[in-house]
Every structure is written in C-alpha cells, then in structure tokens.
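Observation: inputs received (chain + pyridoxal-5'-phosphate).
Thought: call the complex predictor directly.
Action: predict_structure
Action Input:
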Amino acid sequence: MQSSWSDIRHDFPILSRTVRDGRPLVYLDNAATTQKPNQVVDTITDYYRSHNANAHRAVYALAEESTKMYESARDKVAGFINARDRSEIIFVRGTTEAINMVAYAWGRANVGKGDVVVTTEYEHHSNIVPWQLLTQEKGASLRYILMDDEGCLMLDTLDDILDEGRTKLVAFSMMSNVLGTITDVEQITSRCRRAGVPTLVDGAQAVPHMRVDVESLGCDFFAFSGHKMMGPTGVGVLWARKSMLEKMRPFHGGGDMIREVHKYESTWNDLPYKFEAGTPNIADVVGLGAAVDYLERIGMGNVRRHERELTAYALAKMADVPGLTVYGPRDPDRRGGVISFNFADVHPHDVAQIMDEDGVAIRSGHHCAQVLMERLDVAATSRASFYVYNTKGEVDVLVGALRKVAEVFKLG
Ligand SMILES: Cc1ncc(COP(=O)(O)O)c(C=O)c1O
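Observation:
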C-alpha cells in the first residue's frame, strides 16, 4: 500500500470541509459518486493547461501528446480489469451508456420475437430499462432472476429460465447498489456458457471496490463508471470480448468511427474506434487513467479489506440502534460497503435530513432500483455507502446520528 489511511484522506481536500454551521463533513454517499483525489484533479487541470488538442486527428506536437495521453489511459484501464486486448476497452459516458450500447448495437441484431432477456430483481434502472425498450420493440420478453429475503439471487430460477431455451442474454450487476450483495458472477456465467447464452455484467459498484478480472469472470460484456472510482463524471467503460465487438454494428455514427464514407455507404474503423464516434471526452478519460493509477497504488485487495472491516463494524453497531431495519446479507463476506436501512414509519427523507444536521451525507430514495423497492415492499430506503477514505470514527458519527433519529421519533 502506498501510505497510511490517514494520508489518503489528505489527498481529498473536500473531506476536510465543514458543512451546516461547522460540522465536519462525513461523506457516506459513495455509491452515488465518490470524491476525487488531488492526483486526479491535477491531472485533468494539467491536461487542459498544457496538452489540450483533439485526439487521433492531427500530426502536430500537442495533438500527439493528447492522443498519447488518451490511449495510455486505455492501457491502464485494460490492465486494471485484466482485458486481454486494449481494443476491447470502449470509452463511453458511463455504465448507463455502456449498457444502452449493448442493447442497441448487439441486442437489436440478436434478440427477436419470442426471445428472452434475463436480468435480476436487484438491478439499477440502467440494467432494466434498456432491456424493456429492446424486448418491447422486438416482441421478446424480459424475465427476472428472483432474490431471497436476505437479498441474494436464487440461481435455480435462472436454471429454470435457461432450460426453456429462448434466452439470448443474461444481464446482472456484480454488486447491488442498494443491498451491497456481491453476486456470484462465475456461477452465473458458467451456467450461461453451458447453455450458450452471453452475459453482461454491470460492474458499476464492483470495479471501484474490489479486484475485477474480466477474463476470469467469464462474461461477454462488462460496464462501469469512472465517477464511482475516484475519476471524473462523464466517462465510463464498456469492455466486451473482441469476437463480440467485431460482429456488432456501430452504436453512434460520425467522425473517427469510419474507415471510408461514400454518398450512400460507409465502412468502419478498427476496434475500439468503431464504437467511439466524435471527439471523445479526452480530459476525463485521462483523469480516469489517473484514478486507476491511484487505486493501483493503494491496491484493490487493500480497498476491499478496508471496506469489509468498516462494513462489519457498521453492521454490528447498527444492530443495536432501536427500531432500525437493515437490508441485505448479514455476512460481510457476501456484501460490499453499501448499507440500506429504514426506521419503521419514518420517511427516509426525514432520516437523511436529521443526519445532514450532523454533517452526515447519506442518500434516501429508491436509488434507481424501483423493482427492488417493490420486492422489499418499501417506497424508499436510506443508504450509507463507504469508500477507502472513510473511517471507523465516521461510522461512529453515523451511528450516533441514527440513535438521534430513534430518539426524535421515540423508537425502541
Ligand atoms: C449498479 C449500478 N449500475 C448502474 C449505475 C448507473 O451509473 P451511471 O449513472 O454512472 O451511468 C449505477 C449508478 O448508481 C449503479 O449503482
């Protein structure tokens, strides 16, 4: 590891801020977006100050530098998730765009009437709505892997669907953004491979928090967002097997994605450029490369260990808060650092507001997971989510604020 945990906090000046009349900020909304270290902010500033030019287009020195920085970020990302080939890394705006790209560019050519796309009950809307659009357009149907009461997927429900023989894709998240449940990805991909069905993994909540190796996961598509892993907003990644990408038609048409354009037809550029139409988000891709460097220096094993410890600590302390229901697996080995909870009859927005008075930033709402909310039979939850810069002291502040809510509403 590069340095101690308290040194890491020095890299994030925002974490030393106060809010609400001088309360130290306790930032626990990392599942929504993470804070950015100086190294990322400085890299982006340096890019604009000293290297800015369009990439892949001109031969002058600045353009060469810009292109080199952009492409070097691709190498870093490829190494970070163990992609076999750098051309399998497509830069997109985020997880949402990556999944939509697959639904459009792959799904429209491969899913037809009567076919089935499978997802799960704990998906973010970005891994549900694109499949609704696709299956509705094609006369196909959308089916769900069901979840048990602890928030883990019941894979026998997948087996039943696969046995019917009409499944064209299984799309699921590696970690739930509400329950923190870590999916047994290899279990799903191996069953799907046996059935000849491709898989898409939504890695938005996984890549920032644990070592991900797309080759050993055995999936065909993998999507994630830069802003949830210390990178800037507006940049994310679609990884896909080269054999898949080669067979796919482009998603967007425009500059840079073509080889030749004639009046009535065009031919496509090589991978990955076939899928990167128009001027790319160069500065933010370069910033994402800096975030990868930063996480590699800490070590993803250390990130996971730290967050597992914080989560176990928080779950134990939260168990003693009167009137509090905590969702998701009890075992910290089966979950990441995302904890959703509710107080009986207290609206999650009221909880979040009381927490905010103590400087604690948590999220309340449906977390873009309304199918899951229906399954849990709630309209909303409150959610605290950790990252590598959070401390046990901050968990204590969270639990103190939760006790305050219990007192205000006379629970327990
Ligand atoms: C599991 C999961 N998938 C997808 C997304 C969408 O990510 P983005 O908004 O960066 O596209 C999120 C964001 O919260 C998420 O948590």
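Thought: report the result.
Final Answer: The pocket of pyridoxal-5'-phosphate is lined by residues 31, 94-96, 124, 126-127, 173, 177, 202, 204-205, 225 (CB under 6 Å). The radius of gyration is 22 Å.
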